[in-house]
Specification:
Layout lengths: L6 E4 L1 H7 L7 H13 L4 E6 L12 H8 L6 E5 L3 H10 L3 E7 L2 H8 L3 H16 L8 E7 L12 H14 L3 E5 L7 H15 L6 E3 L7 H10 L4 E4 L19 H10 L8 H14 L8 H5 L10
Helix pairs in contact: 2-3, 2-11, 4-6, 6-7, 7-8, 8-9
Bound molecules: zinc ion.
Zinc ion binds next to loops.
Length: about 300
């Protein structure tokens, strides 16, 4: 990361596409990933290894990973819900494997039908499997603390429980934890506070990323709050694709185009060329004409005389 300040991790092909009913053809997914990598994006979460019966949109993840691995200078990330998914991710050769851990146990039981204890056991098994892979080929294995800022089922989530969960995940053998605002409940003060608490518990080097949603319009403010506390990886999705089922008109994840614009305008290098990034939208909008794409910068355009951070 010597030549960039913030790693913008694109999650649209996973978080965005799994939230919509339409299935994007494999070739289009690959064209999107290649174009966005060519625009300078260094990391893309290209899919998830979940049963195709549950998420037909992700059924081609192995093929997408295979193609993405041929893209130069790209970290290929995938999401897995369990050991079975992790085995598929390892077989496919993904560079980075993330597993969501719902701090709200109600959410965990409903989403993956596992209690916290069962999740810690599952995650420890994956960590052991990953540790057995030879060093040069070993994927980076991290756990995302989802519903860390609040849960649609439980409401407020205890910050002490977030911190304790982060510690237990590190004990289970993950390389890193991340904070996820799955529900779009977070506010900037809460982000600052929770990032600091988790950093104090597990060490700054073991929490470098946040996954934020823009459900209530605070996505960019929350990203900035996190960056102010030393976070260096921010997830976002092209065109905020996927939207939010609970908030019509709201994007799902933070919009990549707006995030990159904000960071570059502030002098923080992302490595991404904003004009080339805006062109990538066409690939997605042509293939999914009925899905709304969000973003202010795409609508308003890049300001006259705009210069990337140097
Ligand atoms: Zn998400």
């Amino acid at each position: 990361m010597n030549d960039i300040d913030i790693l913008v991790s694109e999650v649209g092909p996973r978080d965005g596409l799994q939230s919509i009913a339409s299935v994007l053809p494999t070739a289009t997914k690959i064209a999107w990933i290649e174009a966005q990598a060519a625009a300078g994006c260094r990391e893309i979460e290209v899919g998830s290894f979940v049963p195709p019966k549950l998420l037909p949109q992700m059924a081609d993840t192995a093929k997408v990973v295979e193609a993405a691995l041929k893209t130069p200078d790209l970290t290929v990330a995938v999401l897995v819900p369990n050991l079975r998914g992790a085995e598929d991710a390892i077989a496919a050769g993904a560079h980075k494997i993330s597993i969501p851990f719902s701090v709200s146990e109600t959410h965990s039981l409903k989403n993956v039908r596992k209690s916290h204890d069962e999740m810690f056991t599952e995650i420890a098994k994956i960590a052991e499997r990953v540790a057995g892979i030879e060093a040069g080929k070993r994927p980076h294995f991290e756990a995302g603390l989802s519903t860390a800022f609040g849960c649609t089922l439980e409401g407020p989530v205890s910050e002490e429980l977030v911190v304790r969960s982060a510690e237990r995940l590190m004990d289970a053998g993950v390389a890193e934890v991340g904070l996820s605002d799955t529900t779009g409940y977070a506010n900037p003060e809460q982000v600052k506070r929770l990032v600091r608490k988790v950093q104090a518990a597990v060490g700054k080097e073991h929490i470098t990323g946040v996954h934020l949603h823009n459900t209530r319009g605070l996505g960019l403010a929350n990203a900035l709050a996190a960056i102010g506390e030393g976070i260096t990886t921010v997830d976002s999705s092209l065109g905020g694709i996927g939207g939010c089922p609970f908030a019509p008109g709201a994007s799902g994840n933070i919009v990549t185009e707006d995030l990159v614009f904000m960071l570059e305008a502030m002098g923080l290098r992302t490595g991404i060329d904003i004009d080339r990034l805006l062109d990538v939208r066409t690939i997605v909008s042509d293939a999914l004409p009925d899905e709304p794409l969000y973003g202010f910068v795409p609508d308003a355009g890049v300001p006259k005389g705009f210069e990337h951070a140097a």
